[in-house]
Design a protein that fits this description.
Layout: H1 2-14, E1 20-21, E2 26-28, E3 32-35, E4 38-41, E5 46-48, E6 55-58, E7 63-66, E8 71-72, E9 77-80, E10 84-86, E11 91-92, E12 97-99, E13 118-120, E14 125-126, E15 131-132, E16 137-138, E17 143-144, E18 149-150, E19 153-154, E20 159-161, E21 166-167, H2 176-190, H3 210-224, H4 230-235, H5 239-256
Parallel strand pairs: 1-4, 2-5, 3-6, 4-7, 5-8, 6-9, 7-10, 8-11, 9-12, 10-13, 11-14, 12-15, 13-16, 14-17, 15-18, 16-19, 17-20
Antiparallel strand pairs: 20-21
Length: 258
């Protein structure tokens, strides 16, 4: 009883700068709170700061509203200089970053770009280490896979993955026709006059160096709706090998699908 009273008193102190705190808000550890604008926590919101502190920050013109039953994982950082809305029951994973401003324009650190509101719908799930960029809207019930970077609009119920995040496909069919498609992508990326043979690789295809491999990775991800890693590309010593890693990436996506 005494321990609960002490914890309740600490939470009141830690959330002293919050404009509105709903009933049943629970803290696991002390979050970093800097509220220069408007900060609202709905009923039964949970914020974890164990083992790594989470950050809730608003600027002078910022508003951050977290809906009923939302959960914020440890190490998450949510920053609003315009408006950030997190819907009821949303799950924000550990080390997620949600910022409605870039703080400075690319190439010009003296100019701050205009912040753009972020809206995260009801029941959205952001897995660990997701980054949500300014101006993003994520529809109700959508899921963003771990490590992804989200910009623009994610439709309700969509599952997205990657950098930048794109729709995830449950499976990828790569048979003989798929191998031909892989070869066609290699031809397109490197500007070849003819289709490369299945055993052609970095030593035989002009331009298939480290930079070329990155271009090829992005083209394959776009064509097949999979997520490939640097390790995948290092394993691929030929066009045939590329077909194998794409099939394996499709299988991984299928296993992760909820």
């Amino acid at each position: 009883m005494i321990r609960r009273a002490v914890k309740t008193a600490l939470q009141r102190v830690w959330l002293n700068g919050v404009d509105s705190v709903g009933r049943g808000v629970r803290l696991d550890g002390r979050p970093y709170v800097e509220n220069l604008g408007l900060l609202v926590l709905g009923e039964e919101v949970e914020v974890s700061s164990t083992p790594v502190q989470s950050h809730l920050v608003t600027g002078p013109d910022g508003a951050l509203e977290i809906g009923r039953g939302a959960r914020i994982g440890h190490g998450a950082a949510i920053v609003s200089h315009a408006r950030v809305e997190i819907g009821e029951g949303a799950r924000i994973g550990p080390f997620a970053m949600i910022m409605d401003t870039d703080f400075h324009e690319a190439g010009d650190h003296s100019r701050a770009p205009e912040p753009k509101p972020i809206r995260i719908g009801r029941g959205v799930v952001l897995e660990s280490r997701v980054t949500v960029l300014r101006g993003t809207t994520i529809g109700e019930g959508a899921r963003v896979r771990a490590g992804s970077v989200v910009s623009g609009e994610v439709p309700a119920g969509e599952v997205v993955v990657g950098v930048p995040a794109r729709p995830e496909r449950a499976s990828v069919e790569v048979g003989e026709a798929g191998e031909d498609r892989v070869g066609a992508i290699v031809r397109m990326v490197f500007g070849l006059r003819e289709m490369p043979p299945a055993n052609a690789g970095p030593g035989q295809v002009p331009g298939w160096d480290s930079l070329g491999a990155l271009k090829l990775l992005l083209a394959l991800e776009e064509a097949f709706g999979v997520t490939l890693t640097e390790h995948d590309m290092m394993r691929a010593k030929s066009v045939a090998d590329l077909g194998v890693v794409v099939r394996e990436a499709g299988a991984r996506s299928h296993l992760r699908a909820p």
